[in-house]
Write a structure and sequence with these properties.
29% strand, 5 strands, two-stranded antiparallel sheet, alpha+beta, three-stranded antiparallel sheet, 41% helix
Length: 93
């Protein structure tokens, strides 16, 4: 799903609002989430999941093609944990 698809679906469910206004609200929400993650905060959306930034350690690895040892610096990665209510319908029994 693209952002424009999200705006379209929200607009179809909310009569009386302009797509322009809904697109602006979606932009504000995404910008706020990005800023919080950049500050190192955890973002939790009840019923959906939580987002957090994790620090990955520096490590060394070997290039299988050349055999050269390479150093990979530490880096940050985004971690998403889905909520139990979202996980339920996705898990096959």
């Amino acid at each position: 799903m693209l952002k424009r698809d999200l705006v379209q679906q929200v607009a179809s469910k909310m009569d009386g609002y302009l797509k322009k206004d809904i697109a602006q609200a979606v932009d504000i929400i995404l910008e706020t989430i990005s800023e919080s993650l950049a500050n190192g905060d955890r973002v939790e959306i009840r019923g959906f999941g939580s987002l957090s930034v994790r620090q990955r350690k520096a490590r060394t690895t070997k290039n299988p093609r050349t055999g050269k040892i390479m150093n990979i610096p530490p880096r940050k990665s985004l971690h998403f944990t889905m909520s139990k209510s979202l996980k339920g319908p996705l898990v096959k029994k």
